Amino acid sequence: MEFGVNFFPVVDPERKSAADYYEESLRLVDLAEELGYEHVQIVEHYGSPYGGYSPDPVAFLAAAAARTERIRLATGAVIAAFTHPVKLAASLAMLDNLSRGRLDVGFGRAFLPDEFEAFGVSIEESRDRFDDGVAACLELWTGEQTVFEGAVHRFGPFTGYPRPYQRPHPPVFVASATSPDSCAAAGRAGHNLQVVPSVTSREGLRDMIEGYRRARAEAGHPGGGRVQVKYTCYLSEDRELALSDARAQEENYVARMADAVASWAHTRSSQYPGYEKFVEKARAYDFDKALADGKVLAGTPGDVVEQVARVAGEYGGDLCVSLQFNPGHLPYERAARAMGLFAREVAPSFTGMPRTRREPVPATA
Predict the structure, then answer these.
(1) For the Luciferase-like domain, which residue ranges apply (predicted)?
(2) Which domain holds residue 102?
(3) pLDDT number for residue 2
């Protein structure tokens, strides 16, 4: 098992400024490097307290790259639908060079109707734009005088610059919220996978991961691929403090998510079957049930060791678990303390931290 750190800002601007959030998060990046975590990653969202402090993962990760030497930098995920692939491929390749080959690229489809509306993009083009974005980036990273003919994007001949530092290109991950079809497609394509337990059942998540691995094997790709599972983590020697923090911050997260997904109450899309249930799920949220169902990690180090062992038993011991320690408005000091406790008292039960760096293959090789 590998462990990394993720950032999903669900922050009320009246309670914490953007500048303070970035400063605190980058201090946690420094700590993650020191403690031997495998990666740091950040999301892409717009226009609300639900992730809106992170409109540009590349900018945040460039700042992280300048402060670190070893830790990998992951987008979790960039939204291909909202950026032309020529620009997206170039900015990601630039980050890969700035970090000397430490970039992992997670691509996502987006799922909030309000974001599609803000960009003037039809939600019914979601899948086509995602497929075009991933395919075009791969061609621009590896080809010469690329002529691209996609469902939405057409361009060329055009050669992408700069070339990525890693050859033939950075590792590619596909982010999926609830779709087994998306997971299977990622497996068939030979990509890696990012999933989030908080928005699906344990059985549903198991089916998604198993479907990914099965499709990857049937397509003949070597190895099992990398599966990254994201959790919030609240950790303290004081169980009551950890659970109190978890309850408050998870309820804040769900309240902000409920606002962000509210437009699904009157939106229907063939691209997102069943997503109208997000509104109902948010309203029915119960923290105690979420904790019992393994959707959040919280408690003492001993408690969290048991919870991670359960994750490994259900989804496989070869996972990369990505942990958010500073959700919502948790004070920096408690997030930093939890990150250290996890590295010292939880992770060694599953893997030897610090881990050996995966050396990238440079473009000059």
Answers:
(1) 1-311
(2) 2-349
(3) 95
